[in-house]
Amino acid sequence: MNTRILDCSEENLLYAAGIIKDGGVVAFPTETVYGLGANALDAEAVKKIFAAKGRPADNPLIVHISDLSMIEKIAAEVPPTAYKLAERFWPGPLTMIMPKSELIPSVTSGGLDTVGIRFPSHPAARRLIELSGLPIAAPSANLSGSPSPTNAKRVFDDMNGRIPALIDGGESEVGLESTVLCFDGGGVRILRPGGITPEMLSEVCRVTVDRGVLNELEEGAVARSPGMKYRHYAPRAKVIILRGSAESFSEYIKNNAADGDWCLLFDGSESVGDVPYICYGSSPDEQAHRLFESLRELDARGAKRVFARCPGTEGVGLAVYNRILRAAGFCVTDLEVVK
Ligand code: TXA
Ligand code: MG
């Protein structure tokens, strides 16, 4: 099977919607990252997603909708707070977990009795869902364990030959996956941070950030979100986060860098001698936008070990930090302590 790359024309979206209606899988752009979509209500179609990605069967998929009324068909019960959040943040990079209805097969929910629902804002994603007339289950369109793809080339790198078609919508705007939350009394608990930040959510309700967002799951503990227990977003290179000032970073590199080492810098103003580097931006929005592409680029350049500048955790920074922490397998060196 050769994977066709198609632009976002109405004709191509109709073709892609036809594949979904026939029980097939297509990759499509969203404002966060690219998704790998199939009919969320069809267990056989959803199994093809798991096969294409090599994804563990216990990791549930997010179901994408294009109209608020679809939520009542796929959720058994919609908490009042969900409507308030939907009004404020949908369409957009927010996934809300709620009890699933019987229409959602257990393959889609990874065996759980809940379903994560998201109404994306990307026009091509919305149109694809509308034209298929179905809720679309879609994980990120990468091979399981790799960084999520933020452009069509990276989807093609991972999925060529595994799916019939890929809709090319250019670079993903946010660059990191959606914020995933569940309901907790009248408030919410963030299981995966993303473009909708704790600060933004707390304007609507009480917000807790789950311990798993910034900490490694303890041996034997049950993840509230199965995705948290897998080593995620990881490039082949070994990533080490260096926490500290630009000066202490430069000092550390001068004393420790060896052949095959690369740096992942903010804006390149850090001095790293002749150690090769890639920049992922100085603001959290830029860092979110570029992180996954930078990790893939470092692999393409043959980096063996990567020393990364440590982002802040305010606003979207929390999502950037959460992803880079996983890419690094929780390996963080505190430079001010080392000194
Ligand atoms: O931005 C996004 O969310 C992208 C685009 C394509 O929409 N999708 C995405 O899907 O990132 P995926 O499958 O790569 O990540 C979904 C995460 C996983 O960590 C999964 O464990 C968690 O959400 N999740 C999904 N449904 C859940 C549920 N019912 N309960 C707990 N966690 C859930
Ligand atoms: Mg993913």
Write up what this structure looks like.
By secondary structure, the protein is α/β, with parallel strands linked by helices. It folds into two domains: 4-178, DHBP synthase, CATH 3.90.870; 238-338, Rossmann fold, CATH 3.40.50.11030. Helix content is 30%, strand content 20%. The chain contains eleven helices and 16 strands. It has helices at 10-21, 43-53, 71-74, 80-89, 123-132, 152-159, 198-201, 246-256, 284-300, 317-327, 335-338, and strands at residues 4-6, 26-28, 35-39, 62-64, 94-99, 114-118, 136-137, 165-167, 179-184, 187-192, 207-209, 238-243, 261-265, 277-279, 305-309, 332-334. The strands form two sheets. An eleven-stranded mixed sheet has the order 1-8-2-3-7-4-6-5-9-10-11, sandwiched between helices. A five-stranded parallel sheet has the order 14-13-15-12-16, with helices on both faces. Helix 1 crosses helix 5 (123-132) and helix 9 runs parallel beside helix 10 (317-327). The longest helix is centred in the last third of the chain and has 17 residues, at 284-300. The protein is globular, with a radius of gyration of 20 Å. Bound molecules: threonylcarbamoyladenylate (TXA) and magnesium ion. Threonylcarbamoyladenylate (TXA) binds next to strand 5, strand 6 and strand 10.
Residue windows where pLDDT falls under 50 for at least 5 positions: none
Which small compounds were modeled alongside the protein? threonylcarbamoyladenylate, magnesium ion
Task: Name the CATH superfamily assignment of the largest domain.
Answer: DHBP synthase
The total count of helices amounts to 11
Q: CATH topology of the largest domain, what is it called?
A: DHBP synthase
Arrangement of strands in the largest sheet: 1-8-2-3-7-4-6-5-9-10-11
Number of strand segments: 16
Rounded mean pLDDT is: 95
Name of the CATH class of the largest domain: Alpha Beta
> What characterizes the major β-sheet?
11 strands, mixed
Distance between the termini: 55 Å
* Percent in helix: 25-40%
Write the element-wise H/E pattern from the N-terminal end onward: EHEEHEHHEEHEHEEEHEEHEEHEHEH
CATH level-two architecture of the largest domain: Alpha-Beta Complex
